[in-house]
Amino acid sequence: MAQWTSAVGATQLARLLRSQDPRDAEPPGGGRRLPAYRSLADGVRRLVLEGRVPVAARLPAERELAAAHAVSRTTVAAAYEALRAEGFLESRRGSGSWTAVPAGNPLPTRGLEPLPPEAAGSMIDLGCAALPAPEPWLTRAVQGAMADLPLYAHTHGDYPAGLPVLRQALADRYTARGIPTMPEQIMVTTGAMGAVAAICRLCTSPGERVAVDSPSYANILQLMRDAGARLVPVALAERLTGWDIPAWRQVMRDAAPRMAYVVADFHNPTGSLATEDQRRRLVDAARSAGTLLVVDETMAELRLDEDPEPPRPVCAFDPAGSSVITVGSASKAFWAGMRIGWVRAAPDIIRSLVAARAYSDLGSPVLEQLAIASLLGTGGWEQAIEIRRREARENRDAIVGALQRRLPDWEFTVPHGGLTLWVRTGGLSGSRIAEAGERLGVRVPSGPRFGVDGAFEGFVRLPFTVAGAVADEAVARLAGAARLVATGTPVEAELRTPFVA
Ligand SMILES: Cc1ncc(COP(=O)(O)O)c(C=O)c1O
């Protein structure tokens, strides 16, 4: 990493260091207390690996941290020196010091390719946070689409902005949620991925900074990297209690990102939900910095608990859609196989996105658009979502119960919605657990896939996609993987057990 892209202040770093669990600071196997510089270096290292201090964040000057953390300047200097020697800090005269992760084995940062369902065999695939279609609504939606298709058969079938009937239905849905929306503010896309890809192509150039939640959805991070963006991670607030608005303000002011990408509704991977106040302040911060705020609502419909009250959508604080571009999708609410997503933004942004579409995928399939329009028009959408929610809730409770029984030292916050649980793996490497799990017949994505530059080594993400005995078996295999990692047993020696669902 050549330079820093964000900064952590002395008071903020001292607060983060104090908030760490004191048990993590104990020397391995008990024994004598660690020297002060070593505890400080270990504390910073853990903050980086857990993504609470982003990689490439400029650390405060030694003198400032010494004052804020109430230690001597020599202690800070020795801690910085140790971090530098271990590859967790880089420095350049005149530019200060910034966090890093050691070079070496490249950590997995790309998304995890889903196993084709028919190839899963004995493997329990927890790589993909998506559920089967909520029948009978898929069949009914396609039947509705077939009935409407003859109306379109005589046209050329190219609708780069989306079918008028679907744009209207999606606009009406925003209006019903309290944000008046015209069809001219909607473009239908090939899933949320297609939406974010189109926005990136239009609104950023290679080399430009894009601020992202840290952690964030792995495939979008990779999409942005591939588009040449320089990702600037902004850590979620402590204990996943939401968005750290002062940190966002600081990044938007200091790094001046062209764009920011936020999943405010049942965030993937943590399941966090931004409060209305956080939403308002995020939009204010973006507006004052001139940063385009891209808000991904893919998970928004998957509210699994009555509490808390659902906050208003982020675009409620910029209804015209000139600062906030909203991305939505039918993939989680209904079925990923539809590949239908959308963008809500100001009409001129939509016009530019539509014009640029001539050079990418030209449009989305008419039949699938008709299917979603038919669901929205007949009330089937709401009923399908109810099925989804029930299933996701049961799966969530099953995986949480199995973890509590079999891996009691793994920590997580049970989210009120979404499809994912973000799990701290009891001090073990999530990447090693994922490797061992693969050999024991359970596939999980490790934490670093959801981070920028190697953060979150101590996490895995578990989706709400399996229930009952399958969830229990999946966690039993993870517990087996954790044992192998903890004891340093070579994973090849272990045989994969056949799985019968
Ligand atoms: C936050 C988020 N955005 C986008 C996607 C991908 O959505 P789509 O299937 O609509 O492309 C996902 C899928 O898990 C997601 O969680």
TrEMBL record:
SMART domains with a match to the protein in the record: HTH_GNTR
* Keywords of the record: Aminotransferase, DNA-binding, Pyridoxal phosphate, Transcription, Transcription regulation, Transferase
Q: Which family does it belong to?
A: In the C-terminal section; belongs to the class-I pyridoxal-phosphate-dependent aminotransferase family.
Spans annotated as Disordered: 16-36
Q: Tell me what organism the protein belongs to.
A: Streptomyces kasugaensis
Q: Which PROSITE patterns match?
A: HTH_GNTR
The record's annotation in Pfam families points to: Aminotran_1_2, GntR
Q: Domain of life, per the record?
A: Bacteria
**Coiled-coil boundaries:** none
Q: What are the HTH gntR-type domain coordinates in residue numbering? A: 34-102
SUPFAM superfamilies in the cross-refs: PLP-dependent transferases (SSF53383), Winged helix' DNA-binding domain (SSF46785)
What protein name does the entry list? PLP-dependent aminotransferase family protein
According to the UniProt entry, its GO molecular function terms are: DNA binding; DNA-binding transcription factor activity; pyridoxal phosphate binding; transaminase activity
